[in-house]
Amino acid sequence: MRDPASFSPPSGAVLERFARIVGAQHVLTDAEAMAPYLREWRDRYVGRAAAVLRPGSEEEVAALLKVAHEADVAIVPQGGNTGLVGGQIPYESGAEVVLSLSRLNRVLDIDLDNDTMTLQAGVILADAQTAAKEASRLFPLSLAAEGSCQIGGNLATNAGGLNVIAYGTARAQCLALRAVLADGSVVGSLNGLRKDNTGYDLRDVLIGSEGTLGVITAAVMRLFPAVTDRAVAFAGMESPAEAVSLLTFFRERLQCGVLTAFELMSHLGLSFAVKHLGLRAPLAAPTPWYVLVELSGHGAAGAVMAEMERILGDAFEAGLIEDAALAQNEGQAEAFWRLREGMSEAQKYEGGSIKNDIAVPVSRIAEFIETANARVQALVPGARPVPFGHLGDGNLHYNISQPPDMSREAFLSRWDAVVEAVNEVVLALGGSISAEHGIGRMKRQWLARIKSPAEIALMRQLKQAFDPKGILNPGKLLP
Ligand code: FAD
Ligand code: ZN
Questions:
Q1: Residue 370 domain boundaries
Q2: Is the domain of 206 the same as that of 302?
Q3: 207 C-beta closer than 6 A to ligand 1
Q4: pLDDT in tens, 91-104
Q5: Within-domain flag for 474
Q6: Helices marked H in 325-435 — which ranges?
């Protein structure tokens, strides 16, 4: 694939053409004005750019790309800049141009009969959720970055998050989209059809393409009935295997409501959150593992709480759980969720952390944790794995805190070896080395190892067909 270093910065004349399209105030070239677009929140990736473009409409996106294509300018699409694999950050050459979708931030339509919401790509996820709520509907996509990430970014990364167990990933929630290709041509429609078997589905190729095939400008997303009833519980158990059995137990017994979250935490992770974030442990006595369970209902308040009590009572009788606490009000429910959402942050206080975003079949979660823990221990004795995450999706954030008596630098210098070992376990179990964060810049070299030569060749041909000059997000995703 084309090397990002093969591009030259746009000439002054090209920058002027950009300015004629979007207005000079939306072509940022000043270092200070560009700075927020050039680094991501952890400062893991910091890039340089010749300019940041801020179009205000799909027409402007198309006109900008037409010029970029003619002038051979590399374009890095960027949404809310919350991506965790560096896909939205330009390389260090300073020749690339960032295309920010932030000004395409309008909710275009809410169609209650079709049960859909049409959004421009730059709508912030939390704003989309609020718009749905105001229309007495649920837009279920939800992740910790929802205050900043954008619908276009969510689709470009096929974001997952907290409700996937019930509503699927961003892909499953998207009915249609529009995108601008590298040469400025516009594809897709906003018809919002639930059935449309008219040939290859370009929507599904663009979803998860991480800005390498086209710039998503708008999408039609599914809506769901508003949640009027909710129950959140925290259950403690001996092992991940019991947590998986509890999930099956819930699936088999649930009579009313929807299982909307099933999140695993270890006692070590919980103790970090209690110690460093000032949060309270929900159960009187510690157990080695915990699960946060959420049930949502669409009827009268209280029904799913009764369901939760019944099923957890049965699970206790069956010896699957040691103890459980049911949130008695919204405040307690939020407190349980804060423990789960604080897992990553709490780890920061324990020194360096090596992170993996993996998925295996749910039935192999326990085997994964056991085998990966052993491999990590063998490599770095005393390392402390803190697995947590979306057990219901088979997706764990398998983060590993450094041994307390090791230096942060020494531990982090083992990053590649540890990730290599973890990924070997993942692949042996038929899993994925990137469950929800994508490939971006960080995992690019892995792609050639996990896809067959035929798959890589086909991906390259797709790239060639969508973006023959290779101007869209060069050096990302494809090896
Ligand atoms: P950006 O970071 O701006 O871009 C991400 C990628 O998409 C880049 O490759 C970029 O080029 C491309 N892109 C962006 N917009 C467009 C567009 N309009 N057209 C084409 N390409 C585009 N992710 C999850 O899946 N689940 C989680 O639970 C989760 N939790 C997170 C928690 C925190 C605290 C943080 C910081 C991140 C988390 N993420 C999670 C990762 C991130 O939030 C998601 O990947 C999100 O979907 C990215 O959206 P964004 O708008 O910020 O995109
Ligand atoms: Zn996650």
A1: 350-437
A2: no
A3: no
A4: 999 999 999 999 99
A5: no
A6: 330-341, 343-348, 365-379, 408-412, 415-428
